[in-house]
Amino acid sequence: MSDVQIHPYSMIFGWEDDEGLGAQLIEQIIRGEKTATCALKEDYTEEELRNTYVPVGKLITVYDKEGTPHCNVKLIEVFETTFGQPDPRLVYGEGNGTDIEQFQEDHRKAWSNLPFKLEEDSILIVELFEFVQS
């Protein structure tokens, strides 16, 4: 990622060697197909976790991994769920409809090169949002 200063109320999609996944996710947000994102709770510092809840109800700018802004979303809710029994709003918002197994498979694949293993009891931090503008 570049050294660009990013607004504190932001989401960044993509990482080095993500094979275009970040750009694909941003396009899904713009088309209104993606209305949720998640990350492992263990991946957050205490301060990052606290700050995740702050912008509920506010506009969030969505950036790519290079620091380029693409659109704005309104953060609706932040909550915890498990990877093994994910909240249906997360599964739907990630574009998987009601297919929990597909949601899990997609995340295992997307996160396969990261330094953690997804377990049934892994806690996910979920951010639900709605597209506002590009």
TrEMBL record:
SUPFAM superfamilies: PUA domain-like. Gene3D superfamilies: Sulfate adenylyltransferase. Coiled coil: none annotated. Residues 19-133 form the ASCH domain. PANTHER family: CYTOPLASMIC PROTEIN, CYTOPLASMIC PROTEIN-RELATED. This is Uncharacterized protein YhfF. The lineage of its organism: Bacteria, Bacillati, Bacillota, Bacilli, Bacillales.
